[in-house]
Amino acid sequence: MTAQTPSSTATSAADSIRVSAAELADRIIDEAKQYLGTPYRRGGNGPKVFDCTGFTKFIFGKFGYTLGRTVPAQAGDGRELIGNLADLQKGDLLIFGARGDTRLQGHAGIFIGLDSTGTSFNFIHAARGGVMVSDLKETYYKTRFLGARRILPDFLPDIADSTALAALDSLAGRIVPQPDTLSLSPADRRIILFADGTWALVDSTGAVSAPVSKARLLLAENGSWRTVTTSTVLIPDLKKPETDSKKSSASTQAAPPPPADGSAVYHTIVTGDTLYGLARRYGTTVSRICGLNGITTKTTLRPGKKLRIR
């Protein structure tokens, strides 16, 4: 099975935006972290309970990607990755062996990033303890890691700044002397690599030309090369402005003033906090916290911001 990618026919949709693959991966991880602490339940599809593939399917589905519902199905989604840990990119789908038989596909998560040593990584997933962030250093996962699938487009380096591109443009038309020992056919091209990572093309006559804007050069170990262009993806805009009706509704639910006796309880948000987790920690309810702060369950919790709990 191949993951269904966001439709390219919806480029004019008012509720969609176009982002780079790297930005999309950041949005996926940020959205996944909003559910930290959500309980695990076998067969859970979200958003109140999840199992592992229910969670990955739910998160990717928010951005227009359709994954399979079982681990074996998701192990066939996207593209297989062959290489080492350094080849993983944020948002890759991770596959682990089953609890009873490590050779069987039995668990899935979403890759976040490598640690400083490059020998381990952390990932977000729905496990027996709920939605959490775990590390490959944990023996249970290290002995069960089977591989990864790439659901998103490959990341590409940032586009060179305008100064570098302008410098390359200035080279256009210059002639580079051809070595006596090198004979190029009209179809052959050479490249010049500069210390800042930019590059230019040299045709069979020795004329220099700058690459097409946003073009990137990929060099293979065998010395071959090809040009690629930065890709973007059209996804649903989960942060689009509220409609007038929603704004009107929210305005009628303004947060009540704190009690005069100073008995209000506040919590300063840190990375990983969720409304569900805070409600459980303080022995209250999500709806109560929302009511006290004039927010909804869709509100993004920003680290450093204070929430009134009671």
Characterization of the model:
- 21% of the residues lie in helices and 23% in strands.
- The protein has helices spanning 21-33, 52-62, 71-74, 139-142, 162-169, 244-251, 275-282, 286-293, and strands at residues 16-20, 79-80, 93-97, 105-114, 121-127, 130-135, 145-150, 190-193, 199-202, 208-209, 215-219, 225-229, 232-236, 266-268, 306-308.
- The chain is globular, with a radius of gyration of 25 Å.
- The protein has 8 helices and 15 strands.
- It starts with 15 loop residues before the first strand and ends with a strand.
- Strand 11 (215-219) and strand 12 form a beta hairpin.
- Residues 7-12 and 242-252 have low confidence and may be disordered.
- The strands form 5 sheets. The chain has a 6-stranded antiparallel sheet with strand order 2-7-3-4-5-6.
- It is of the alpha+beta class and 310 residues long.
- The chain folds into 3 domains: 12-150, endopeptidase fold (from Nostoc punctiforme); 162-229, no CATH class; 241-308, Membrane-bound Lytic Murein Transglycosylase D, Chain A (Roll), CATH 3.10.350.
Write the layout of secondary structure elements.
Layout: E1 16-20, H1 21-33, H2 52-62, H3 71-74, E2 79-80, E3 93-97, E4 105-114, E5 121-127, E6 130-135, H4 139-142, E7 145-150, H5 162-169, E8 190-193, E9 199-202, E10 208-209, E11 215-219, E12 225-229, E13 232-236, H6 244-251, E14 266-268, H7 275-282, H8 286-293, E15 306-308
Antiparallel strand pairs: 1-13, 2-7, 3-4, 3-7, 4-5, 5-6, 8-9, 9-10, 11-12, 14-15
Helix pairs in contact: 7-8
